[in-house]
Amino acid sequence: MPRPKSTDDLHFFDPRASLAHGKNRLPHWDQSSATFFVTFRLADSIPAEKLTRWRSERAAWLASTPPPHTAEQEHDYHDQFTARIEAWLDLGAGNCALRDPATRAITAASFAPFDGARHWQHAWVVMPNHVHLLFSLLAPHTLEALLQSWKGFTAHATNRILGKAGDFWMRDYFDRLIRDSTHFWRCARYIRRNPESARLSPHQSTLFEAPFVNDFLNSE
User: Fold this and answer.
1) Is 68 left (phi over 0), alpha (psi -120 to 50) or beta?
2) Could you tell me the pTM of the whole model?
3) N or C: the chain end with fewer CB closer than 10 Å?
4) Are 133 and 37 in contact, with CB atoms under 8 Å apart?
């Protein structure tokens, strides 16, 4: 399959196709060959008191809005809960193990293998305590399996370098099915601007953009 050269080559959310709902603690929406914006974070990246309150509010929302969720309900969920998590992450809480270029390089390098076989990477940024990725799945691979592979490998390799054991990443992750070209470029801009929004110096994050993404954003 040739590398995408524009958003015309991508598959976005198809309301007519089947939609799988993940079984993890958070609601996850998976669709074969679709394009996703995903965030995952270090285990200590959000203070416990904030996370406790967030989980309580999220549990109430999920109880009042049981799955399967509509597109509008999914949007409401991300507005209320995912956006808040992303704002907290940019505050740089926790030990920020990925601030070190050596440990950050392990995570950054994990996205290249199988690019073009299991997925197409469009843009990603590795921040001191979290990661954002914009990518397309390639059938028959699933979102959950791909995330488990990335997180499992990087956790083991980084803990070995740090001489530590135990949880490195938070078990869950946040995902959004990209619905159209407008949504895609909004996420790509968010990824590019995240280091600046978090007031990081240039050496504290690692950014990747596929050629067509880089060309488009530079032309704006």
Assistant:
1) beta
2) 0.87
3) C
4) yes
